[in-house]
Specification:
Helix content is 45%, strand content 21%. The relative contact order is 0.16. It starts with 14 loop residues before the first helix and ends with a strand. It is an alpha/beta fold. It has one domain: 3-Layer(aba) Sandwich (Rossmann fold), CATH 3.40.50. It contains eight helices and seven strands; from the N terminus they run H-H-E-H-E-H-E-E-H-E-H-H-H-E-E. Helix 2 crosses helix 3 and helix 6 packs antiparallel against helix 7.
Length: 243
């Protein structure tokens, strides 16, 4: 199943390199813009995603595309696992995340490292649970990234994906699309100084196979018991798959 490739910048260069550059550019504004542009709802979404793992009590968790470590910190707060490893391709985002972790004196529990979601350095069957928040949309090769996570997950382990989806309810769908396509890039351009970053956000959400389509991609990469949970009238969804 081929998915349309959307890149942040239109010049030459692979999606992976461009995504890394984009997040390096906006790293210091990223947390503020997330809270501001989502009216703070993104923190609720993360809590709901992490709550999907409560019954599993995972002790070793991998957070892929960890960014500034918001989800890793929520995992620590809610689940208290022994160890969380966060990987991301943007060094600037990781630097922001490490400061937040150090401030909370959690550097022993949560470690962040530069890593490529499509080529994870870990042994097969390593992690009790794997999480990704707003990251799979940025994979250069979605199926390869999912297959890698499936590989390093222990049998019986759970993958939790939090990702933007497309609302379908009238008139919310139209209002949301207007905001996402016109207002959000304008605010992003003024505050983050990277005009392309929030335009890419809209374009990448439009191209992403959400809902049942994403469940089908999970199943194709050998996850089972897949399900999706739409949040906030379908702006965002939690996807669950087991190994």
């Amino acid at each position: 199943m081929l998915h349309e490739e959307v890149k942040p910048y239109h010049e030459e260069g692979g999606k992976k390199e461009q995504v890394s550059t984009m997040f390096d550019n906006i790293a210091k504004y990223y947390d503020f813009l997330n809270r501001f542009l989502s009216l703070g709802i993104d923190t609720i979404w993360r809590k709901k995603a992490v709550n999907q793992l409560k019954a599993d009590k995972p002790q070793l968790v991998l957070d892929v595309a960890t960014g500034t470590a918001d989800l890793a910190l929520e995992i620590e707060r809610t689940l208290k696992p022994k160890k969380i490893i966060g990987v991301d391709i943007s060094n600037q985002m990781l630097a922001v995340g490490r400061k937040k972790i150090a401030k909370k004196k959690l550097s022993e529990t949560i470690t962040l490292e530069n890593g490529d979601s499509e080529n994870l350095r870990f042994e097969s069957n390593t992690f009790d649970a794997i999480t990704v928040a707003f990251g799979v949309r940025n994979y250069a090769n979605l199926e390869k990234g999912l297959a890698e996570m499936q590989r390093v997950l222990k049998p019986g382990g759970k993958l939790i994906v939090l990702e933007f989806s497309k609302p379908t309810i009238f008139p919310f769908k139209q209002l949301f699309n207007f905001y996402f396509k016109n207002i959000l890039p304008l605010i992003g351009r003024v505050t983050s100084k990277d005009p392309k970053a929030y335009q890419y956000l809209y374009e990448s959400v439009q191209a992403f196979p959400d809902g049942k389509k994403f469940e089908a991609v999970l199943e194709k990469t050998n996850f089972h018991s897949t399900k999706s949970i739409p949040l906030t009238l379908g702006i965002c969804s939690i996807y669950i798959g087991k190994k």
